Amino acid sequence: MKSLLRGGKALILACDHGLEHGPKDFTVSSINPEYILDVAVKGRYNAVVLQKGLAEKYKENYHGKVPLIVKLNGKTNIPKVEPLSLQHCSVKKAYQLGAVAVGYTIYLGSKHEATMFAEFGKIQEEAHQYGMGVIAWMYPRGEFIQNDKDTDILAYAARAGLELGADFVKLAYNQDPEGFKWVVRSAGKAKILMVGGVKDEAEMFLKHAAEAMEAGASGLVVGRNVWQHPEPLKVTEALRKIVFENKSYLEASRELQ
Ligand code: FBP
Protein backbone atom coordinates (compact mmCIF):
# COMPACT_ATOMS: atom_id res chain seq x y z
CA MET A 1 0.00 0.00 0.00
CA LYS A 2 1.27 3.49 -0.82
CA SER A 3 2.26 5.28 2.36
CA LEU A 4 0.71 8.54 3.37
CA LEU A 5 3.08 8.92 6.27
CA ARG A 6 6.46 10.60 6.54
CA GLY A 7 8.38 9.38 9.55
CA GLY A 8 5.13 7.89 10.81
CA LYS A 9 3.33 11.26 10.66
CA ALA A 10 0.99 13.00 8.23
CA LEU A 11 -0.12 16.56 7.58
CA ILE A 12 -2.95 16.56 5.05
CA LEU A 13 -4.82 19.52 3.57
CA ALA A 14 -8.58 19.16 3.07
CA CYS A 15 -10.49 20.99 0.38
CA ASP A 16 -13.85 19.26 0.10
CA HIS A 17 -15.77 22.05 1.82
CA GLY A 18 -17.42 23.42 -1.31
CA LEU A 19 -19.77 20.44 -1.24
CA GLU A 20 -20.09 20.12 2.55
CA HIS A 21 -20.63 23.80 3.39
CA GLY A 22 -20.89 25.72 0.14
CA PRO A 23 -18.93 28.79 -0.97
CA LYS A 24 -19.43 30.56 2.37
CA ASP A 25 -16.25 28.90 3.68
CA PHE A 26 -14.16 30.64 1.03
CA THR A 27 -12.82 34.13 0.42
CA VAL A 28 -12.49 35.85 -2.94
CA SER A 29 -9.04 34.19 -3.20
CA SER A 30 -9.81 30.72 -1.86
CA ILE A 31 -13.01 30.28 -3.88
CA ASN A 32 -10.51 29.47 -6.64
CA PRO A 33 -9.34 25.89 -5.91
CA GLU A 34 -5.95 26.81 -7.41
CA TYR A 35 -5.27 29.00 -4.37
CA ILE A 36 -5.70 26.09 -1.92
CA LEU A 37 -3.83 23.65 -4.16
CA ASP A 38 -0.94 26.11 -4.25
CA VAL A 39 -0.88 26.03 -0.42
CA ALA A 40 -0.89 22.21 -0.55
CA VAL A 41 2.13 22.18 -2.89
CA LYS A 42 4.15 24.99 -1.30
CA GLY A 43 3.31 23.70 2.19
CA ARG A 44 4.66 20.23 1.29
CA TYR A 45 1.56 18.50 2.57
CA ASN A 46 1.56 14.70 2.64
CA ALA A 47 -1.59 14.83 0.55
CA VAL A 48 -4.56 16.96 -0.44
CA VAL A 49 -8.18 15.80 -0.10
CA LEU A 50 -10.44 16.59 -3.04
CA GLN A 51 -13.81 15.52 -4.30
CA LYS A 52 -13.84 14.01 -7.80
CA GLY A 53 -14.83 17.24 -9.55
CA LEU A 54 -11.83 19.23 -8.33
CA ALA A 55 -9.53 16.22 -8.77
CA GLU A 56 -10.51 15.99 -12.45
CA LYS A 57 -10.56 19.65 -13.35
CA TYR A 58 -7.51 20.87 -11.43
CA LYS A 59 -5.18 17.95 -12.07
CA GLU A 60 -2.41 20.18 -13.42
CA ASN A 61 -2.34 22.04 -10.09
CA TYR A 62 -1.51 18.99 -7.97
CA HIS A 63 -0.48 16.05 -10.14
CA GLY A 64 3.16 15.14 -9.51
CA LYS A 65 3.35 17.93 -6.92
CA VAL A 66 1.31 16.69 -3.97
CA PRO A 67 -0.32 13.25 -3.48
CA LEU A 68 -4.09 13.01 -3.89
CA ILE A 69 -6.78 11.60 -1.60
CA VAL A 70 -10.20 11.35 -3.21
CA LYS A 71 -13.23 11.77 -0.99
CA LEU A 72 -15.78 9.23 -2.18
CA ASN A 73 -18.88 10.52 -0.43
CA GLY A 74 -20.19 13.89 0.65
CA LYS A 75 -23.36 15.82 1.30
CA THR A 76 -24.52 19.40 1.68
CA ASN A 77 -25.59 20.92 5.00
CA ILE A 78 -28.92 22.08 3.58
CA PRO A 79 -31.33 19.29 4.64
CA LYS A 80 -31.75 19.35 8.42
CA VAL A 81 -32.25 15.60 8.71
CA GLU A 82 -30.46 12.60 10.18
CA PRO A 83 -27.07 12.64 8.47
CA LEU A 84 -26.47 10.25 5.60
CA SER A 85 -23.65 10.61 3.11
CA LEU A 86 -23.50 8.23 0.17
CA GLN A 87 -20.80 7.33 -2.30
CA HIS A 88 -20.75 9.40 -5.49
CA CYS A 89 -17.31 8.47 -6.80
CA SER A 90 -16.02 4.96 -7.43
CA VAL A 91 -12.82 3.52 -6.00
CA LYS A 92 -11.74 2.77 -9.57
CA LYS A 93 -12.15 6.43 -10.53
CA ALA A 94 -10.04 7.49 -7.53
CA TYR A 95 -7.36 5.03 -8.61
CA GLN A 96 -7.45 6.32 -12.21
CA LEU A 97 -7.02 9.85 -10.88
CA GLY A 98 -3.84 8.65 -9.17
CA ALA A 99 -5.08 8.74 -5.58
CA VAL A 100 -2.89 7.24 -2.87
CA ALA A 101 -5.89 6.88 -0.58
CA VAL A 102 -9.65 7.35 -0.44
CA GLY A 103 -11.77 9.02 2.20
CA TYR A 104 -15.30 8.29 3.34
CA THR A 105 -17.43 9.93 6.06
CA ILE A 106 -19.38 7.76 8.48
CA TYR A 107 -21.86 9.52 10.77
CA LEU A 108 -21.59 7.20 13.74
CA GLY A 109 -24.84 7.09 15.72
CA SER A 110 -26.97 8.35 12.84
CA LYS A 111 -30.12 6.36 12.09
CA HIS A 112 -28.42 5.66 8.77
CA GLU A 113 -25.09 4.40 10.13
CA ALA A 114 -25.75 0.83 8.87
CA THR A 115 -26.07 2.10 5.28
CA MET A 116 -22.73 3.91 5.55
CA PHE A 117 -21.08 0.88 7.21
CA ALA A 118 -22.18 -1.35 4.33
CA GLU A 119 -20.93 1.06 1.69
CA PHE A 120 -17.67 1.67 3.53
CA GLY A 121 -17.10 -2.09 3.82
CA LYS A 122 -17.13 -2.52 0.05
CA ILE A 123 -14.98 0.56 -0.49
CA GLN A 124 -12.39 -0.61 2.03
CA GLU A 125 -11.96 -3.98 0.30
CA GLU A 126 -11.77 -2.49 -3.17
CA ALA A 127 -9.36 0.28 -2.19
CA HIS A 128 -6.99 -2.22 -0.59
CA GLN A 129 -7.10 -4.34 -3.75
CA TYR A 130 -5.90 -1.26 -5.66
CA GLY A 131 -3.18 -0.68 -3.05
CA MET A 132 -4.78 2.52 -1.75
CA GLY A 133 -5.13 3.49 1.89
CA VAL A 134 -8.53 4.13 3.48
CA ILE A 135 -9.36 7.06 5.73
CA ALA A 136 -12.63 7.01 7.67
CA TRP A 137 -13.96 10.44 8.64
CA MET A 138 -15.64 9.18 11.86
CA TYR A 139 -18.13 11.86 12.92
CA PRO A 140 -20.62 11.06 15.72
CA ARG A 141 -23.75 12.92 14.58
CA GLY A 142 -27.52 12.76 14.64
CA GLU A 143 -30.32 12.97 17.15
CA PHE A 144 -28.90 10.26 19.42
CA ILE A 145 -25.57 12.08 19.85
CA GLN A 146 -25.75 14.59 22.69
CA ASN A 147 -22.09 15.62 22.64
CA ASP A 148 -19.96 14.76 19.63
CA LYS A 149 -16.76 15.61 21.58
CA ASP A 150 -17.52 13.28 24.48
CA THR A 151 -14.47 11.10 25.11
CA ASP A 152 -16.46 7.84 25.20
CA ILE A 153 -18.24 8.53 21.94
CA LEU A 154 -14.98 9.57 20.24
CA ALA A 155 -13.30 6.41 21.54
CA TYR A 156 -16.26 4.45 20.14
CA ALA A 157 -15.81 6.21 16.78
CA ALA A 158 -12.09 5.38 16.81
CA ARG A 159 -12.75 1.74 17.62
CA ALA A 160 -15.53 1.44 15.05
CA GLY A 161 -13.09 2.77 12.43
CA LEU A 162 -10.59 0.07 13.38
CA GLU A 163 -13.23 -2.66 13.35
CA LEU A 164 -14.49 -1.55 9.94
CA GLY A 165 -10.99 -1.74 8.47
CA ALA A 166 -9.92 1.90 8.21
CA ASP A 167 -6.18 2.53 8.02
CA PHE A 168 -6.70 6.05 9.35
CA VAL A 169 -9.50 7.39 11.50
CA LYS A 170 -10.08 11.10 11.25
CA LEU A 171 -11.95 12.59 14.16
CA ALA A 172 -12.26 15.69 16.31
CA TYR A 173 -10.00 16.44 19.27
CA ASN A 174 -11.99 16.56 22.52
CA GLN A 175 -9.71 19.17 24.17
CA ASP A 176 -8.96 16.66 26.92
CA PRO A 177 -5.34 15.44 26.56
CA GLU A 178 -5.80 12.49 28.96
CA GLY A 179 -9.13 11.45 27.46
CA PHE A 180 -7.71 11.65 23.95
CA LYS A 181 -5.05 9.08 24.86
CA TRP A 182 -7.94 6.64 25.39
CA VAL A 183 -9.36 7.58 21.99
CA VAL A 184 -5.98 6.86 20.36
CA ARG A 185 -5.66 3.59 22.27
CA SER A 186 -9.13 2.54 21.18
CA ALA A 187 -8.10 2.85 17.53
CA GLY A 188 -5.42 0.16 17.96
CA LYS A 189 -3.37 -0.15 14.77
CA ALA A 190 -5.58 2.32 12.91
CA LYS A 191 -3.92 5.73 13.02
CA ILE A 192 -5.71 8.75 14.38
CA LEU A 193 -5.73 11.99 12.39
CA MET A 194 -7.12 15.08 14.08
CA VAL A 195 -9.83 17.11 12.33
CA GLY A 196 -9.13 20.82 12.03
CA GLY A 197 -12.67 22.09 12.54
CA VAL A 198 -14.11 25.59 12.45
CA LYS A 199 -11.38 28.24 12.29
CA ASP A 200 -10.05 29.07 15.73
CA GLU A 201 -7.59 31.68 16.92
CA ALA A 202 -4.32 30.36 15.42
CA GLU A 203 -2.40 29.87 18.69
CA MET A 204 -5.31 27.98 20.25
CA PHE A 205 -5.55 25.75 17.20
CA LEU A 206 -1.81 25.01 17.43
CA LYS A 207 -2.18 24.25 21.14
CA HIS A 208 -4.91 21.69 20.45
CA ALA A 209 -2.91 20.17 17.59
CA ALA A 210 0.12 19.78 19.87
CA GLU A 211 -2.03 18.19 22.60
CA ALA A 212 -3.54 15.70 20.16
CA MET A 213 -0.09 14.79 18.84
CA GLU A 214 1.24 14.34 22.38
CA ALA A 215 -1.72 12.06 23.10
CA GLY A 216 -0.63 9.83 20.22
CA ALA A 217 -2.33 11.14 17.09
CA SER A 218 -0.38 10.51 13.86
CA GLY A 219 -1.17 13.85 12.32
CA LEU A 220 -3.92 16.13 11.08
CA VAL A 221 -6.29 16.59 8.20
CA VAL A 222 -6.88 20.32 8.25
CA GLY A 223 -8.77 22.76 6.06
CA ARG A 224 -10.28 25.98 7.33
CA ASN A 225 -7.69 26.66 10.05
CA VAL A 226 -5.07 26.82 7.30
CA TRP A 227 -6.64 28.32 4.19
CA GLN A 228 -9.00 30.73 6.00
CA HIS A 229 -5.96 32.22 7.74
CA PRO A 230 -4.48 35.25 5.94
CA GLU A 231 -1.05 33.55 6.00
CA PRO A 232 -1.76 29.86 5.29
CA LEU A 233 1.89 28.97 4.73
CA LYS A 234 2.89 30.38 8.11
CA VAL A 235 0.22 28.26 9.83
CA THR A 236 1.47 25.32 7.78
CA GLU A 237 5.06 25.81 8.94
CA ALA A 238 3.88 26.03 12.54
CA LEU A 239 1.94 22.79 12.11
CA ARG A 240 4.97 21.12 10.53
CA LYS A 241 6.99 21.97 13.64
CA ILE A 242 4.35 20.29 15.82
CA VAL A 243 3.64 17.25 13.65
CA PHE A 244 7.11 16.41 12.35
CA GLU A 245 9.46 17.98 14.91
CA ASN A 246 7.54 17.46 18.15
CA LYS A 247 7.86 21.16 19.01
CA SER A 248 5.66 22.79 21.63
CA TYR A 249 2.83 25.01 20.40
CA LEU A 250 4.60 28.06 21.83
CA GLU A 251 7.72 27.30 19.83
CA ALA A 252 5.63 26.54 16.74
CA SER A 253 3.68 29.79 17.18
CA ARG A 254 6.86 31.76 16.38
CA GLU A 255 6.28 30.77 12.76
CA LEU A 256 3.18 32.98 12.78
CA GLN A 257 5.18 36.19 13.37
P1 FBP B 1 -11.69 21.38 8.54
O1 FBP B 1 -10.26 21.26 9.01
O2 FBP B 1 -11.92 22.66 7.81
O3 FBP B 1 -12.66 21.11 9.65
O4 FBP B 1 -11.88 20.22 7.44
C1 FBP B 1 -12.09 18.89 7.82
C2 FBP B 1 -13.42 18.40 7.29
O5 FBP B 1 -13.66 17.08 7.73
C3 FBP B 1 -13.57 18.46 5.81
O6 FBP B 1 -12.95 17.37 5.19
C4 FBP B 1 -15.04 18.50 5.64
O7 FBP B 1 -15.46 19.18 4.51
C5 FBP B 1 -15.49 19.27 6.83
O8 FBP B 1 -14.49 19.18 7.81
C6 FBP B 1 -16.79 18.76 7.41
O9 FBP B 1 -17.21 19.65 8.38
P2 FBP B 1 -18.47 19.45 9.28
O10 FBP B 1 -17.94 19.44 10.67
O11 FBP B 1 -19.33 20.66 9.03
O12 FBP B 1 -19.16 18.17 8.91
What would your notes on this structure say?
- This protein has 257 residues and is α/β, with parallel strands linked by helices.
- It has twelve helices and eight strands.
- The protein has helices at 17-20, 33-42, 52-57, 59-62, 91-96, 113-129, 151-164, 177-186, 202-214, 224-227, 232-245, 249-253; strands at 10-15, 47-51, 68-71, 101-106, 133-138, 168-171, 191-195, 219-222.
- The chain has an eight-stranded parallel beta barrel with strand order 1-2-3-4-5-6-7-8, surrounded by five helices.
- Helix 9 packs parallel to helix 11.
- The longest helix has 17 residues, at 113-129.
- The protein is globular, with a radius of gyration of 17 Å.
- It starts with 9 loop residues before the first strand and ends with a helix.
- 49% of the residues are buried.
- 1,6-di-O-phosphono-beta-D-fructofuranose is lined by residues 14, 16-17, 20, 49, 137, 195-197, 221-225.
Mean pLDDT: 97
Decide which structural class fits the backbone.
Answer: alpha/beta
Q: How many strands, which pairing sense, and closed or not: the largest β-sheet? A: 8 strands, parallel, barrel
- The helicity comes to 40-55%
C-alpha geometry: globular
Overall number of strands: 8
Radius of gyration: 17 Å
Order of strands in the sheet with most strands: 1-2-3-4-5-6-7-8
Unreliable parts: none
Terminal residue distance? 39 Å
Which ligands appear in the coordinates? 1,6-di-O-phosphono-beta-D-fructofuranose
Strand content: 15-25%
Quickly count the helices. Answer: 12
What order do the SSEs take from the amino end to the carboxyl end, as H and E? EHHEHHEHEHEHEHEHEHHH
